[in-house]
Structure formats: structure tokens, C-alpha cells
Design brief:
- Belongs to the DHNA family.
- Catalyzes the conversion of 7,8-dihydroneopterin to 6-hydroxymethyl-7,8-dihydropterin.
- It is a single chain.
- By secondary structure, this protein is an alpha+beta fold.
- It contains three helices and five strands, in the order ββααβαββ.
- It has a five-stranded mixed β-sheet with strand order 3-1-2-4-5.
- The radius of gyration is 17 Å and the shape is elongated.
- Bound molecules: the ligand Nc1nc2c(c(=O)[nH]1)N=C([C@H](O)[C@@H](O)CO)CN2.
- Ligand LV4SOB2L binds next to α3.
- The site of ligand LV4SOB2L has 10 residues, from α3.
């Protein structure tokens, strides 16, 4: 399985359950791993044949900047659905972090996996 990824995509948004959190924008950070077969893009050297990580990032920035969720769970689930539905991604792992939200920790948040993980290509090389 090949993966196209985005690491530490920072977006400012309204997020949180407390009154003060409804008043100020906070920064969330996304890590995304998206299953995508890169063989055709590598063969043709053509952006049209791969998952454009810049296009994914722009879509998620727009979505998250305009959102006002209470929970990181809701934001993560809806961001994952956008990537799967609009970018034809069959499997992804998404980490959504809220830096500094809990005193004493660097960040807190959720990690979700959605979809069917493609079989690893490694199996083709095993069995002698
Ligand atoms: N599982 C979760 N726990 C908590 C969340 C959350 O979104 N998911 N949110 C908060 C507060 O908004 C917190 O981030 C403020 O510091 C608390 N726990």
C-alpha cells in the first residue's frame, strides 16, 4: 500500500466545549495518511494521476476555518468523510491534535482510521 501524507497542517478555528472556547480561535493540527496507489503517477510524472496533497490541504483548511465544532471527534469524523468522498481515498488515518489544550501535555486529540486498508504489497514477495 502506498501512502500520500500531510503532517502538522495547522488551522485556526472555533473548537471546544467551554464558554471561553466559543469566543477565541484556537489552532488545531492535522496529520493525515491516505492510501493511494502512486504507481501511475510515478510512471507518467503527471499530477493528474495522483492524490494532490495541496488540493486536500486547501479543502480541509477551508472546511475547518469555517467550522465551529464542540468536539475534536466531530471535526475529525467530518474531515475524514470529506477526504474519502471528494478525493476518492479508500482508507485513511487522521490525527487531530489540540496543542496546549491540557496543562502539562503538549497536545491532546483523537486518531481515527476509516475505510478498508488495502493489502500490503509485501505479500507478493513472501513465500519464496
Ligand atoms: N475526548 C474529548 N475530550 C475533551 C474534548 C474533546 O473535544 N474531546 N474537549 C475538551 C475541551 O474543549 C478542552 O479541549 C479544553 O481544554 C475537553 N475534553
Amino acid at each position: 500500500m502506498d501512502i500520500v501524507y500531510i503532517r502538522d497542517l495547522k488551522v485556526d478555528t472555533i473548537i471546544g466545549i467551554y464558554d471561553w472556547e466559543r469566543e477565541v480561535r484556537q489552532t488545531v493540527s492535522l496529520d493525515l495518511e491516505m492510501a493511494f496507489d502512486i504507481a501511475e503517477a510515478a510512471r507518467t510524472d503527471n499530477i493528474e494521476h495522483t492524490l494532490n496533497y495541496k488540493a486536500v490541504a486547501k479543502r480541509l483548511i477551508g472546511f475547518i476555518e469555517g467550522s465551529e465544532f464542540l468536539l475534536v471527534e466531530t471535526m475529525a469524523e467530518q474531515a475524514a468523510a470529506i477526504v474519502r468522498d471528494e478525493f476518492n481515498v479508500s482508507w485513511l488515518r487522521l490525527r487531530l491534535s489540540k496543542p496546549g489544550a491540557v496543562r502539562g501535555s503538549r497536545d491532546v486529540g483523537v486518531i481515527i482510521e476509516r475505510g478498508d486498508r488495502p493489502a500490503s504489497g509485501a505479500a507478493a514477495f513472501s513465500g519464496g
